[in-house]
Amino acid sequence: MPELPEVETVRRELEKRIVGKKIAKIEVLEKKQFLGDPKKVVGREIKSIWRRAKVLVIDINGLILLVHLKMTGQIIYLSNKKRLVSVGHPLPFILNQLPNKTTRLVINLDDSSRLFFNDLRKFGWFKLLTKKQAEVELADFGPEPLGKDFTLRYFINSLGRTRRVVKMALLDQRLVAGIGNIYASEVLFAARVSPRRQANSLSDQEISRLYRAIKEILSEAIDYGGTSAADQAYVRPDASPGRYQNKLGVYQREGKPCYSCGGIVKKIKQNNRSTFWCPGCQK
Length: 283
Ligand SMILES: [Zn+2]
Prior knowledge:
Number of domains: 2
Largest sheet: 5 strands, mixed
Radius of gyration: 20 Å
Bound molecules: zinc ion
Order of helices and strands: HEEEEEEEEEHHHHHEE
Number of helices: 6
CATH topology of the largest domain: N-terminal domain of MutM-like DNA repair proteins
CATH superfamily of the largest domain: MutM-like, N-terminal
Number of strands: 11
Structural class: alpha+beta
Strand order of the largest sheet: 2-9-5-4-3
Strand content: 15-25%
Mean pLDDT: 94
Distance between the termini: 27 Å
C-alpha cells in the first residue's frame, strides 16, 4: 500500500504537471470508487494539490477532491505529446496500455493531457467534497511525522499511554499519520526496537531512536521516490517505479541475512499484518 513517501512523491510530481490546468472531462469507469457528482468537477481549475497522511487533497477551485490510493491505486499522467511506450523502462504488465482493465477513472485536462486512475483491487477512492466536508474527513489524523507538530515530547506521551504493541501503535493514523506496514517495519529495525514490545514499556531513549528513525527514513524514502514493493503496485505518475526498495533493511527480506548482524530476517503476523524484523538486532 502506498504510504506517506509514495503519496508525497505522487503529490510532488502531479503538482508540477497539473496545477493551473482545467478539468475538461471526467470518465468514471467504476462508479463505487467516485463519491459525488462527477459533472461538478468539469470546467474547474486545479488550484493546488497537497497531502494529509496518505490522502491526496486536490483543490479544484471551491471544491475538494480527496484521493486515497489504498492497496493498489496508481495515478498515471500522460501529457498530450507523450505516449506511454516512451517511458523507457520495463513496465509492470498492467501499465503496458492505458486505459487498461484496471483503469477506474480518466480525467482529461484542458491541454489534452490525461490522468488515469488504475486500481487492480478497487479499494481506492475519489471523494468530491466541500472544503468543510473535507476538513471533517481529515480531522481525525494525528500529526504529520515530518511536520513541526510531531515532537519528541508528543511521541513519548502518546506511546506511554498505549498498551498496544509498538508496531500497531505506529500504524495508528490518529497517533501519527502516514506510516504503514513498510515503514513501520523499517523504522523499528533502524531503531533496534522489537515490533513485539508493548508501547508503554519503551524507554525515552528507545522512543527517541524511533522518533529519529521515522523522520530520517520517511525523508530518505521521499528522496528516492518511494518504495515499489514486490507486487509493483506503486508507481510514480510517469509510470516509473520508486527506488527506495533497494534501501530496505527488513521489509520483504524474510529468510535473508540481516545487513547489520548477519542473522536471519523473520516475518511474523501481528493483527493479520506482516511484520519483518531481525530478532538479533531488535530487542
Ligand atoms: Zn540483525
